[in-house]
Amino acid sequence: FDKTAKAVVGGKVTWPQVFAIRRDGNRRVFFTNALPDHGTGVFPIRPGSEAYKYDRNPHHIQPQRMGFSLPADPELAERPTCAPGVVGILLTGVPLYSALDAPGRDAVAHEVQDSCEGHPQPAGIYHYHSLSPCALSRQQPGQHGQLAGYAVDGFGIFGPYGESGEALTSADLDACHGHSHEIDWDGERRVMYHYHGTPDFPYTVGCLRGAHSRGAVAALVEAE
């Protein structure tokens, strides 16, 4: 589909964000109210708008209490595992969902999002199905994609540019949408696996490569 011709939910609503990250031993711990550090479109989608012709999302964006506890030094598993519904969290404070919507379709193609490529689901959780352009404000031309967030197995999710600053597509990556080479990780240069966002399906995390991905997913819980 032609993403440039797709309707966009208009508006510029700002939110009182709560978002924190800390290193706790071998874990990277996040707390978020799932409200972004950028503006969003107006939801529910307004009747009469161009977006309303294609998607009548009736949901309001609501603050949440969400905690993520992920491996800080992730390791590769012998074989990949299926991606869950929530595949990670971006540094905007917003959860990253898989590329699929509830009926199992390409969510980016079939659902209408705002200019940051986000929208709310029935519980009011604002989320993305792709790597939000609003998470890439620090990207430098000709350089490797910037760290934009973390998958639930602990590996980083980076912007859509490779080692030499070349634009990546899914064809440049493995089935899980990642590869290994030297990257900046916690202030060090390390050769390690990582994911990339790209403009084509599955957009971010196609499956999980982490050895502790199942435990990481279980750690995605409502914070007390």
Describe the structure.
This protein has 224 residues and is mostly beta strands. 4% of the residues lie in helices and 31% in strands. It has two helices and 14 strands; from the N terminus they run E-E-E-E-E-E-H-E-E-E-E-E-E-E-H-E. It has helices at residues 107-110, 213-218; strands at 19-24, 27-32, 66-71, 76-82, 86-90, 95-97, 118-120, 126-128, 147-151, 156-158, 178-185, 188-196, 207-210, 221-222. The protein is globular.
Secondary-structure element pattern, one letter each? EEEEEEHEEEEEEEHE
What is the spatial order of strands in the main beta sheet?
6-5-9-10-12-11
Please compute the radius of gyration using only Cα atoms: 17 Å
The number of strands is: 14
Q: Percent helix among the residues?
A: under 10%
Task: Give the helix tally.
Answer: 2
Choose one word for the global shape: globular
Which stretches are poorly predicted, pLDDT < 50 over at least 5 residues?
A: 215-219
Could you tell me the mean pLDDT? Answer: 92
Kindly report how far apart the N and C termini lie: 42 Å
What structural class is derived from the secondary structure elements? mainly beta
Strand content: 25-35%
Q: Major β-sheet, in short?
A: 6 strands, mixed
